[in-house]
Amino acid sequence: MSRRLGTVIDEVSAHRAHYFAMAEYSDLKIQGEGHGWDWWLERYFTLLGVPDPHLAGERIDRGYGLWRHPLENVAETLSGLAHDGVRMAVVSNSDGSVADSLAVAGLAGAFEFIIDSHEVGVSKPDPAIFEAALDRLALQPEHTWYVGDSVFHDVQGALGASIGRAILVDPYGLAPDGVDRVGSVADLLGSLGA
Fold it and tell me: Is the dihedral of CA 49, 94, 67, 63 positive or negative?
């Protein structure tokens, strides 16, 4: 739990706000609206009850440090997938901090590599960022899966790059009909083995 701007932000509220803001953001992007990261961040903090995120100290106004707490059972799930022979990498729309965030969360060692959009100059849903990962993995797209939390960036982006399966982590049941989804990261063990 942390205190920012006089508002107590607990992990459960932050988790919920992230997914609800991301679902709204994806819907708007799919409809062709030009909202960007600042819109998502403002919506996220509004859902948390933070009155003016742009006045926040500790660099929270740009979102830094929000992604350093792993979801429940993530480490165990990644370990189980690795045990089953699943190769894993990260493709992230980030600001150059995703590798550090994963390291702080104790998860960096689970992945073969990390592709950060800030470092490669292309962002999801552009197929080029997925293709960069496929090249490094030396895998054909139809033999891969992509897992993410955004219908617009992750699911549509991965399918646009001809990835065989795009799965949305959707703990609140917000996905549109027809989207391949799991309720939690832990559900991937059964889903990917299917």
Answer: negative
Whole-structure pTM value: 0.87
pLDDT tens digit sequence for 90-102 = 999 988 888 988 8
How far CA 94 is from CA of 45, 124, 193, in Å, comes to 18, 10, 29
| CA torsion through residues 194, 81, 144, 152, sign | positive
CATH class of the region 74-193: alpha beta
Note the helical H segments in 31-146: 37-48, 74-83, 98-104, 117-120, 127-137
Contact of 157 with 48, CB cutoff 8 Å? no
DSSP state of 64: T
Q: pLDDT tens-digit profile of 107-116?
A: 989 999 999 9
For the chain, what are the domain ranges?
2-62, 74-193
- Closest Cα partner for 185 from 88, 63, 97, 103? 88
